[in-house]
Input
Amino acid sequence: MSQGPPGAAPPLDSVPVPGDADDTRARHFGELARAPLTIGSTMVLAIVAFIVLASQVSMLAGVGGAIAALLLMSVVVYALASSRAKADFFGAYAKRRGLAWSDARGRIPGYTPLLRKGDERYTVLSLSGPLPGGIDGALSHYTYEEEYRDSEGDPQTTYYEFTLCITEVPEAAPYLHEVFVQRRAGFRFMDSAEDAFRERQRVEHESEEVDRRFEIFIARDDEMNRARQLLSPTFLVWLADHTPENFAFELVSGTLVANVKGHQSSAIELDSIAEATAAIAKRLRAEASE
Output
C-alpha cells in the first residue's frame, strides 16, 4: 500500500488513538520527573524548606518540610502529565475521525433546559464535525455551576459536569416540538402527583426497563400519538438496552442534545454517545418523513 510522499500527513485510519485520556500519563510523568529542570527545582525547594524550618522550628519540622516539598512537586508533575495525556488523546481522537478539536472555554446557546441551568455555563472541550454514527454535530465537555451560601454564610459553588452530543434535526420540529427522555429521579409511585404540577405531558408506555431508567415527556401541545409512534416497542428496547449508562436526551425545536453525566474521556465512551445520538436523530427523521 502506498504511504504517500515524504512529509505528507498520515491517512486518518493510520493515526493511533490512545484508549482514553490517561493512557499516556505514566509516560509523560516519567519524562517530566526525570527532566533536569524538575529535579533541580525539586531539590532547591526541598533544601530551602529544610533549612528554613530546621533553623526556625526544629530538625523534625525541617525534614517534614522537605518531604512536603517533594510531594508538592509530585502533584505539579502529575497535573502536567495529565494535561499532556489529555492533549494526546483528544488530538489523536479528533484527527482519526476528522474532527475539529478545541480545549478553549466556550459557550453553547440555551437550546434546551439543560443548557440554561445554573448560574454559569461553559464548555471546556469541544469536538465538532462528522461524528461516529453518521451525523454532523459536536461532542463537548460541558459544566454548569450553581452558587450558594453555606450555613456560615460563605459563598460556595457546586459544579455539574456532562458530556454532550449536539446535532440538528430540523425535520423533527414540525412533528414534535419537544421530547425529553430524562434520567429517572424519584420514586415511580410519585409520578401522578408530580405530573399535576408539570407543564409537559408524560408519555406512558409498556416498557418496565425504560420506566426504571427514564421519564419521558413531550410539550403540552404536542400530539401523544406521534410520541407513541416515535417510541415504538423496538425503539424502547434499544433505548433500555443499548444506550450508555446515565444517558438522556432533550429535543427542542429540532435541536437534539444528548448527554451523559461526567466528562467522558475514552474513545469507547465518546463513540457510544455519538452513535446513540445518531440513532435517535435517524429515528426522528424517519418518523417525521412518514
